[in-house]
Design goal:
The complex is a heterodimer of chains A (638) and B (93). With 638 residues, chain A is of the alpha/beta class. Chain A is built from 27 helices and ten strands. In chain A, the strands form two sheets. Chain A has a seven-stranded mixed sheet, with helices on both faces. In chain A, strands 7-9 form a two-stranded antiparallel ribbon. Classes of the chains: A alpha/beta (638), B alpha+beta (93). Strand 10 of chain A pairs antiparallel with strand 4 of chain B, so a sheet runs across the interface.
Chain lengths: 638, 93
């Protein structure tokens, strides 16, 4: 049975399988999503933040399933719609394979029987590029022209008839958040048709289309999509991508000039606010204020008040005694199974308590803040403001998102490093997260211990950690081969997020995180239980002690805290509480435990995301950094 | 000149983008050779923000150095006016 569990966990987490499978051709939708025979695949597509999820929810209401695409890390929501099946896709700006989101969206859209393209009426110039791209692929579609109210408010008039004529597909005006246009879009699905291709692109397609099973594939060949298998008679590189993109852009600009009439004078309030948010003086203080607000919400309100209740009351007082009793009825607490299930690191006790009592509220709190910032359009602005600093660490502004999240939960943040542009950046960000970013659970314990030592110690502690963070980033930037990508990010207008949408996103992301982290957490608990029973834990302790007492001048028993720290860093930090140490020793031990390996769940996520080799490097790197920094500091203060 | 040398408020025509993947991404946002943009903001030693119609894009400094532009004019007088109070004033108007 144990073997089966391990096998399940290994498969679920992809550790043994090696994630970097090179993919050729498209991923069959039907392999990950159950499509009933005869059902048409209807796909929602659009740019980020144009209201796709509002449409998805309004069109379906219930029975939403979420499927992960194998080989990628992107989830697709889908739900029955009459006899057909409706699928959501990640927000994209065009059909290509610049990142995982685009690859998945491309695969789903390429296999669609009909596409509902959601277009932001206020940003036709940007959005119609994707629209024209889907039309050029030859996929039947209908357009939902969303946010008509905002366009009107901003003095943008759109001639819907002319737009329909130019594109050759039906255009339905809508205000999705008010429910306007939803029914009309539903009715229009039966009237989808292939639109008017850009004439120059159609001509290029004509020359090669006999070699492909669909015009869409022929187009992707011309656009040099790396996943298209090139048939023998054709040259392997079509070298037409730029020409096609250019023609499509010119055509879109032409259409926009025919259908959009601007009657607005001057910039709107939101546009001015957006401009101010990027200027050094109101911008940087405002950034600090919003991060502070987020810290108070997650780090103080959720981490203390809410967790006090969920972990302290619900879990420790009710769940834990109940579960222990239940397990004891079947297994004696001294037996192997009893220990694994309900012992110190029990799968049914510790794992569940930490996952649901501690992590769930924290992660939900963080995802709530993140979704709020995302929907408000502020996130790309934070990335812009922090870009100049992150460039020095071999990252770009986008990396601020996993870094902020890491202060909440490193496990969760390690998953979001996926949004970074290159493998190099993902390695740097993951290493920084794994080594130099303490999670909120740990921060709580650390601040509790460092505050009584006085302000000077707090500053010294922060200076060392931030110093290591910057130093590590700069070193990795120097050592790692290749080049990091530059920032090129769309700055959407600032708007007040819809609470319902934010909550929905929070719910989905939190659920997804739990699904991903739970097996890893259980696996970690199992490993530690086994280590403990087999006596290996004590051997490691003996092995580490010269390093602990010799090099870092800490009491010998501090080794135990570090062993605990392998499971969870805050366990380790808490283990230092009870030791009798002077001020210098406390500081050294706190610096070392902060830089020490992240919790076992994070480590497993890092292995899964980065592969065994990079994962091990980061893991051992954190041992090395922690003891090196601790030892150097000890030479000065202990 | 390059985009990194542009100043806030200037109107520019993009002449070339010296990075093929970024060139493709920029076309999708309407920024390509020949397009006219406004340098909407320039963060000290940080990204340059360009605007074209309602589309705003933040361009990292490294990429901005690889984008050649040509100045076609612009509100140079606005450069001196950018004090904080002035901005608040224009916000409240």
């Amino acid at each position: 049975m144990v073997r089966k569990v391990i096998q399940f966990v290994a498969i679920r987490t992809g550790i043994l399988l090696g994630k970097s499978v090179k993919r050729m051709g498209f991923l069959e939708i039907s392999k990950s999503i159950k499509v009933p025979p005869g059902a048409k695949k209807i796909v929602l597509a659009g740019n980020p933040n144009v209201g796709k999820s509002v449409f998805f929810n309004a069109l379906t209401n219930r029975y939403v399933d979420v499927s992960n695409f194998p080989g990628t890390t992107v989830d697709i929501s889908y739900s029955p719609l009459g006899n057909d099946i409706l699928m959501d896709t990640p927000g994209i700006y065009g059909i290509s394979s610049f990142n995982d989101e685009e690859r998945v969206a491309r695969d789903v859209i390429m296999q669609a029987d009909a596409v509902i393209n959601i277009v932001d009426a206020l940003h036709l110039e940007r959005d119609l590029f994707l629209t024209q791209h889907i039309i050029d692929l030859g996929i039947p579609m209908v357009i939902a022209l969303n946010m008509m109210d905002e366009a009107k408010k901003n003095g943008v008039e759109i001639d819907v008839q002319v737009l329909e004529r130019e594109l050759g597909v039906q255009v339905v005006p809508a205000v999705a958040i008010e429910g306007k246009g939803i029914q009309e879009v539903k009715d229009a699905i039966s009237r989808v048709r292939a639109g008017k291709k850009v004439p120059q692109i159609a001509a290029l397609l004509e020359a090669v289309k006999v070699h492909f099973s669909s015009p869409g594939e022929a187009l992707l060949y011309l656009e040099e999509d790396p996943l298209i298998e090139v048939p023998a008679p054709l040259p392997p590189k079509a070298d037409k991508q730029e020409e096609i993109y250019r023609q499509r852009r010119l055509r879109v600009n032409e259409i926009v000039s025919k259908v959009v009439r601007e009657t607005a004078k001057g910039a709107s309030f939101s546009a001015r606010l957006g401009q101010l948010s990027l200027q050094t003086i109101p911008g940087i203080p405002f950034l600090f204020l919003s991060l502070l607000a987020m810290y108070y919400f997650v780090g103080v309100f959720v981490a203390q008040t809410v967790v006090e209740f969920t972990e302290g009351v619900v879990m420790e007082q009710y769940y834990s005694p109940f579960m222990k009793n239940l397990v004891e009825r079947f297994f004696s607490p001294g037996s192997l199974t009893g220990y694994i299930l309900a012992g110190e690191y029990g799968i049914l006790t510790m794992t569940v308590i930490y996952l649901l009592g501690l992590l769930l509220p924290l992660v939900a709190g963080f995802y709530f803040s993140l979704s709020f910032m995302e929907d408000s359009g502020y996130l790309p602005r934070i990335a812009t403001l922090t870009d100049r600093l992150l460039v020095k660490l071999g990252l770009n502004g986008r990396a601020i998102i996993p870094i902020i999240l890491g202060l909440g939960c490193v496990t969760m943040a390690a998953i979001t490093t996926r949004l970074l542009g290159s493998r190099r950046e993902r390695i740097i960000a993951t290493a920084l997260l794994g080594i130099a970013i303490p999670c909120s659970a740990q921060l709580g314990v650390i601040f509790g211990m460092v505050s009584p030592l006085g302000m000077d110690c707090l500053f010294l502690y922060l200076a060392v950690i931030i110093g290591v963070f910057i130093f590590l980033g700069m070193v990795l930037d120097r050592v790692l081969p290749g080049r990091s990508t530059d920032l090129l990010i769309d700055l959407p207008p600032l708007r007040l997020p819809r609470l319902k949408n934010v909550l929905k996103k929070t719910y989905h992301r939190t659920g997804h995180f739990l699904k991903e982290a739970a097996p890893l957490f259980a696996l970690g608990a199992l490993l530690i239980s086994l280590l403990n029973i087999s006596g290996l834990l004590v051997s490691i302790q003996d092995f580490l002690s010269p390093l602990i007492s010799g090099w870092m001048k800490l009491p010998r028993e501090a080794a135990t805290a570090f062993i605990m720290g392998i499971v969870r860093r805050d366990f380790g930090a808490a283990g230092l509480y009870s030791l009798d140490m002077n001020t210098g020793q406390t500081l050294v031990s706190l610096v070392a435990i902060t830089l020490f390996v992240p919790c076992i769940a994070s480590v497993l996520v890092i292995f899964k995301e980065r592969g065994l080799k990079d994962g091990l490097l980061i893991w051992f790197g954190s041992f090395f950094t922690a003891f090196l920094a601790g030892g150097i500091l000890a030479a000065f203060v202990a | 000149m390059t985009l990194a040398q542009a100043e806030k408020g200037e109107r520019l025509i993009i002449r070339s983008i010296d990075d093929s993947q970024m060139r493709m991404k920029a076309i999708r946002f309407g920024v390509m050779e020949g397009a006219e943009v406004i340098c909407a903001e320039k963060l000290p030693s940080g990204p340059v923000v360009i605007r074209r119609g309602r589309q705003e894009l933040a361009v990292g400094r490294g990429l901005a150095q690889n984008i050649t532009v040509e100045r076609v004019g612009g509100a140079r007088y606005r450069r001196r006016r950018g004090r904080w109070c002035g901005r608040l004033f224009s916000l409240s108007r």
